[in-house]
Amino acid sequence: MERTCPECGDKLIGRIDKKFCSDACRNAHNNSLNKDNKNLVRNINNRLRKNYRILETLNPDDKTKTTKDKLLRMGFSFDYFTGIYTTKSGATYFYLYDQGYLPLDNDFYLLVKKDLK
Questions:
Q1: Which pLDDT does position 38 carry in this prediction?
Q2: DSSP E strands, the chain
Q3: How far does Cα 108 stand from its chain's mean position?
Q4: 4: helix, coil or strand?
């Protein structure tokens, strides 16, 4: 039985367990399998990455305050975050990985960094 490359259809020569004729075909096949439908996952990951960079820029010392206006002007989107932590007293922190924010009164936000050690 002749075995063929699933990407280009060329005949496979070599090892019995060989699946692709070349690295280029293997990469092309895997890239097509891993392509996100309608770019949904990629767009959300880009949004999370942008939010993370904004918090990291505004919070170099691991704890500071900022305003909602400043976050919005930098392009921050409050719809995207990776986790929520509610304290015993009822305060709700929103996190993007290790960077977090806590809504305060008068459109201020406390920015914090979680120690992941």
A1: 67
A2: 63-67, 83-86, 92-96, 99-103, 108-113
A3: 26
A4: strand
